[in-house]
Design brief:
Elements lengths: L7 H29 L2 H24 L3
Helix pairs in contact: 1-2
Length: 65
């Protein structure tokens, strides 16, 4: 039996995981940056870290599909 290609729900879940990771890491960076007076640079760094974390999460979740 052949496997069916991933559907739209899988793509939506992957996108949501990526965006959620970026928002969480960006907010964490912004919060930590507020403590030391560098909110915007830490927030931007958090977004980039979130992108890497999000791609890793999506890869780990959907690599078998």
């Amino acid at each position: 039996m052949t496997e069916t290609p991933p559907g739209g729900a899988d793509a939506a879940a992957a996108g949501a995981m990526l965006i959620a990771a970026m928002l969480i890491c960006g907010a964490t960076g912004y919060g930590l940056g507020s403590v030391v007076g560098l909110a915007v640079p830490f927030g931007l760094a958090g977004l980039f870290v979130g992108l890497v974390v999000g791609v890793a999460l999506v890869y780990a979740r959907f690599r078998r599909i």
